[in-house]
Amino acid sequence: MPVRGSKAARGTSKATPAPGRGSQRLRKKEEEESRRRAEEEEKARQQEEEEDSGSDDDDSSKANKSADDDSGSDEEAVDSSDASEEEDEEEEEEEEDEEEEDSDDDRALSRVVGPVRAAVSPRNAPSVTKKKTPVKKKASKEDDSDDLFSLVKGGRYAFKMIADDWINDYKKEKGGAMTRLIQFIITSSGCKASVTQEMVVSRNYDGTFKKLTQDFGEESAEYPLIMSGPAWKKFKTNFVDFLDYLILQCQHTLLYDGFFLDHLLPWLMTMTTSQVQAFRHTSTLAALKLCSSFITVAQNVQKEVDNSQRLIDVERQKAGNRRTAERIETLEGQLDERKDELSELEEHMQKIFSGVFVMRYRDAKPDIRSLCIQAMGEWMVTYSSTFLADMYLKYIGWMLYDQVSDVRTMALVVLERLYKNEEFHDNLYLFTQKFKNRIVEMVMDVDEATGSHAVRVACVLLKMDVLDGDNCEQIYQLVFVRPRALAHAAGAFLMKFLFNEERMAKRQKEEEAASQKKSSPKKRGRGGAGGAKKAALEEIPFKLKELAKFFIECQAGSTVEYYIDSIWLHMEELKTWEAFTSLLLEDNGLSTEEESCVIDMMSTCVKRAVGGTGPPFRAHKKPILSKREKLSLEEQKSEISSHFMSCMPALLRKFDTDAEMVVDLLTIPRSFDLQLYSELRLQKQLSDLLSAIHRITFKHSSSDVFQECARTLDYLQSGDNPLQSSVDVAVESLVDAIAAEMKEAHTKYMKSKSRSEKETFTLTVHLRRVACLSRFLDLSKWEVFTELQALLGLGCEDPDAMGDELLVECVSCLGTGLMRLVSLIPSQESASDLKSTVRMLRSHLQEFVSRCDELISFSSLVIQTHAFTMVSDVLIASHALKFNKDSQFAALVPDLENAFQERCKEFIIANVLLFKDTETEMDEDDEEDMELQERRSQALVERRCVLASFCKLVVFDVFQLRVGAPVMCYYIRAFHDYGDIIKLFLAKLREANHIDCAKTMVLSLQLLFEEICYASSGAVDRQSKDWTAVKELAKRFALSIGVDASKTTVREMIITMHREGVVYGLSSRSNSTVSHANPDTSLPGNVDFFDILAELVFRLLPTDRNKPPSSILNFLDERMRESDQIPKDIISQLRQNKWQSLYRYRSALSSGGASKPAATAAAPASQAGQASAVLDDFDDAASDVSDLPPAKRRAGARGRKPSTSRAAGGLAAASKKAADNVWLKRPSEAEVRQQKLEKARSAAARARSGQGRATAAAGGRSKRPEAASRGKRPRSASSSDEELDDVEASRTFQRPARARKVAKPLPDNLFDEAMGGDASEDSDSLDLLLRS
Fold first, then answer.
1. Disulfide engineering: 223 pairs with which of 96, 278, 1227, 1244, CB 3.0-4.6 Å?
2. pLDDT above 70 covers what percent of the chain?
């Protein structure tokens, strides 16, 4: 094989540039440093020789004096001095060898550190140098094996210099340099073993790696490539860069010497087959990077080949007298040499591909598989002539079926990069036909990132015109899903699908043909720049029309907000407000449905342009805006205001008959900059807007229209409007007209005897209008409460005669009016007016509560629900003034009877917690009906709001705390629909008063216990699902208290729960709520409750559990002594079945409690405060599923199977250990020692008697039972070709589970957090409740 020679031999080669001035200066400094070191070493050596010669003279003189009679003493002294001199010379030679090794090792640092060292250490200080020399030698011996590793890890020096240093060492001694390089790779994998030169030269790779694997010294699962921390943050990048620099520096010499790569590549290939993951990962990364570097070198060589061929062609084209045969022969020799080098490089690439990639692309570790796919993609892009072929592309296609999402995502990233290069499309044709359907399927991948990358690849495929209509429909429907990244990628695909060149050209021809028939010749003759601009403006309404048609045709059942959010970043025309208004105000052939869609799109775009965050479940937290972003938002708001202030009256005038259009249009004025009304002198437009709102208010009967009108008027009345006085006049006239018409309609209705439907409907609309406007406008001066209370009294007397709709509006109108008055009380200044207002308002509130109480008890479900919601809002609003500094406000809170609270509690239990959807049973065949799903979703939202209102009444101390105990009973039963609300309810109670919260938890457990006892007539079935559910609820309560049991609040809560439970468990039947708890009159009525209480023992601290004087164990003993139903000879009755519950509970306290739940308590309890962060208040919690279909809400515990672990097993084990304990009298220390000694003796006897049986039983088992506990490292990859073939043959790339096409539900962790723990810890009895 030819080896590249010197620069002169290479002729005109330009691959190796001449050294620059910077490198010359570095070499001069290096020479000076080496010269200075040699001088210092010479001085030190001379001093040592002088000292040695002086000591020899002294020894010889002493020998002459002491050997007067012995003639041979002089010769012995001379021999001894010669021997000492020889030993000194040997030591000096060893020191010189060590110094040469140190100089070789430090050569990489000499160029950088040399000038600094020369500046710091003066040359005239040999003593200092002499002192530092031994330390340096010692450090060099320690760091000799891994000097490359420390330099690369630090990354403080240029890798090019480190590579040049290693190349110089390689030229001096190949074996030693290769040993250092391989040691660097071994150390980079985390192995602490040392590599010797004999290992490198011998090529016994299998034996060497067996020894390295045994001496790996793996203390943890981490190794440098995956370690975290500042020291390892850039190690992977440094590792790869060093190898790249090394190969590039060797491209002219070492790559072709037959020693460097012949030793390095076999080492790497052998490492990739190791069972140790660190070896495989590190060597795979190194080998793949070497192949990438080979490609870079091959590209340079290919350029030289082209240059040489071009020079040969030029030389041959010369005339005969100018052509030189020697020149042509030289160039042909260089060309042959370069071709040989290129073929050798490609041979090395194929070795790495077949020896590393083919083996490791199917590795058990996903990171290694992703690494292989990423490297293959890089090779295909940079060296497409070799690697962009079907035999290599098939590996990318196979990885599309990988079971790990990261590997699938990496394959899609590679394909996206390939498809973006149009030059590769011909080579990718067969691959596209084979894997096109798989790419389209992956848009529905379970991983959102993988799906978004698949959509990006599909965008390129759409441009190649290889997707059919079904493929496109499957992709562009994703604009309505909830994952943000996936929806945005689908939006980009939709824009390319709708507005491609062919479709746009065809549409423009149709528009031109239609316009030529309608337009005049003058208009057709316009051209130039103005005509082009007009054509561009006419194209935007066409695009908006196409977007509206697409949304209507899809019929996705989603809102326009999701649609606009998906395409917002991909269509700048959505900010062209002139196009929207011209499309709506001019005659453009739009249907009513299309006009409604365009208006909805326009209002959504306006909200988004002024700083909206997007629709629910896609909205993200508002970032901190910079000054430039704030300025941009202000400019957009000014642009919107200046345009819509002028055209909004015309839009409202044209579409004022359609309620949906009016609701969307009325949201736009709330984005105005009101200062522009006066700056642009738009007083007339403001007056027209107010007149349009006045007209719309009396034209419609929808509550949505009334609310939007009220919100818009309230915004126009804000202090930012310089024309506020004119707005106040218009609002006052509107309020006067509304109140006058409402009173007139009320008078007609009350005087009428027949009360026709028209009169009822008219009064209903007026009440609805007053109720909606009174939320934002002040109607107190009209004093309509007398008429409303009279009407409400009439409805309470005969609800059926009045009708549900009118009664609901009456309750709403009266409730909102009272809340408005309550909110205005603190603003009154006069004390006399305040007292009279409080007195009057208290009477109104008391009357309203009593009327609602009647409606909740004796009316239909619709009226009951609405009455309870309104009365809860009014009570909370009035109760909030109780905490005001003014004590007069405390008299405003009405008195609530216990009977009213009980009726509200029964209403919640019957109609919310125990609600049964009868419609589901009747219409099982209509499960896919969207209208049915919408009704169910709306009904669930209403029930959640009702439950949230009830919880707020308890939290704000309006209702007594005991009334909220039944809600806690349904924490697990109704967890799917109300679990997050109940968990937030517990958290708020704990914040308000943790002791009362603990008592309420125990009360809820008591209610469930008594319910079970009543249903079973006193005989508790401990195998029933209800009993297991109660114990699981007790455990859930214990986990939801808090993480740290040593905190005061947590500790007091758990102690309170145990004390209350002990008192209840030892109470007699007369004190118990239900007398069916236990039929045996000789036992306490609720002794079985101790089984439930035992589930709380694991949260007790040892000091609170069984250490006197204030432990729960002492408290239990005291209560047992005081109880009349506990016999004095209780010790002799411990084994009886009737005392088992009490026995197990006390045994758990004595022995330390159940250990298994305590081990699992840390993980769920660590999530115990996160529900409050997710649900800011009960209103948010109640409306969490307002935008979700019922079939898509159930995300809790999806795909999880609850565990069958029980605390009872731990309690049973603890009871066996405590079998000999004395209950009423604690044993002494001597008795305890005696008991332990007896147990030890009996255990030893059992062990001796069972040794033979154990040996015989072991004979039928494995011959080496200790292998199971030895902790062998599992085989994570095949170590031979046969095993790899078996793995490949048996492995099937399963397609990942396809995600649903509909929007995804709430995050899974939200329901895990709301449950207070992981779903895997749930009992079997909850399997049906937790299954989606």
1. 278
2. 67
Is the torsion defined by CA of 880, 882, 886, 891 positive or negative? positive
Closest CA to 4 of 360, 338, 447, 451: 338
Q: What is the pLDDT of residues 473-501, one digit of tens each?
A: 899 999 998 899 999 999 999 999 988 77
- R_g (Cα) of the chain, nearest Å: 44
Q: How far is CA 424 from CA 21, 419, 711, in A?
A: 44, 7, 58
User: Looking at the DSSP assignment, which residues form a beta bridge with residue 769?
Assistant: none
Which of the 8 DSSP states describes residue 752? -
- What does each C-alpha distance from 245 to 170, 479, 740, 1304 come to in angstroms? 15, 46, 89, 48
**Local structure of residue 667 (DSSP, 8 states):** T
450, 408 Cβ separation under 8 angstroms: yes
Of 29, 56, 4, 64, give the one whose Cα is nearest residue 300: 4
- Helix, strand or coil, per DSSP, at residue 1248: helix
Beta-bridged to residue 1298, according to DSSP, are 445
What dihedral do alpha carbons 1121, 1125, 1126, 1130 form, nearest 10°?
150
Return d(Cα 528, Cα 899) in angstroms, integer: 84
| d(C-alpha 872, C-alpha 879), whole Å | 10
User: 3-state SS string over 285-312?
Assistant: HHHHHHHHHHHHHHHHHHHHHHHHHHHH
CA dihedral 672→676→682→687, nearest 10 degrees, is 40
Q: In degrees to the nearest 10, what's the CA dihedral of 27, 29, 33, 38?
A: 60
pLDDT of residue 233: 80
* Other CB atoms within 10 Å distance of the CB of residue 988: 18
The 10s digit of each residue's pLDDT in 324-350 is 788 888 888 889 988 999 999 999 999
CB-based contact 1100:1058 (threshold 8 Å): yes
Please give the Cα distance from 1026 to 1044 (Å, whole number): 30
Span 263-315, pLDDT tens digits: 899 989 988 988 888 899 999 999 999 999 999 999 999 999 999 888 888 88
Q: Residue 1320: what residue type? A: S
pTM of the complete model: 0.69
| Helix (H) or strand (E) run with residue 1208 in it | helix 1207-1217
Alpha-carbon gap, residue 433 to 464, rounded angstroms = 12
User: Quick one: average pLDDT of 744-772?
Assistant: 87
Q: Which residue has the tokens 């009209």?
A: 782
> What is the distance between the alpha carbons of residues 1328 and 1306, in angstroms, rounded to a whole number?
20
List the one residue out of 477, 212, 512 whose CA is nearest residue 1299: 477
Q: Which of 710, 625, 612 is nearest to 663 (CA)?
A: 710
- 1283 and 1172 Cβ atoms separated by less than 8 Å: no
Q: How far is CA 422 from the centre of its chain?
A: 36
What does residue 365 show for φ and ψ, rounded to 5 degrees? -90, 125
Alpha carbon 931 to chain centroid, angstroms: 33
Please give the distance of CA 1281 from its chain centroid, rounded to a whole number.
40
The answer to whether residues 1323 and 1212 touch, using CB atoms and an 8 Å cutoff, is no
For tokens 């309550």, name the residue.
Answer: 822
Task: Assess contact for 395 and 418: CB atoms under 8 A.
Answer: no
Is residue 1056 classed as helix, strand or coil in its secondary structure? helix
**Cis preceding-peptide flag for 1305 (omega within 30 of 0):** no
Cα 711 from Cα 663, distance rounded (Å): 11
DSSP structure class, residue 1161? S
Residues in the chain: 1332
Say which residue, 1299 or 32, is predicted with more confidence: 32
Let me know if 247 is exposed, middle or buried by CB neighbors in 10 A (0-12, 13-18, 19+): buried
Look at residues 940, 951, 810, 947 and name the one whose alpha carbon lies nearest to residue 867.
810
Taking each continuous run of H as one helix and of E as one strand, the counts in the chain are 63, 0
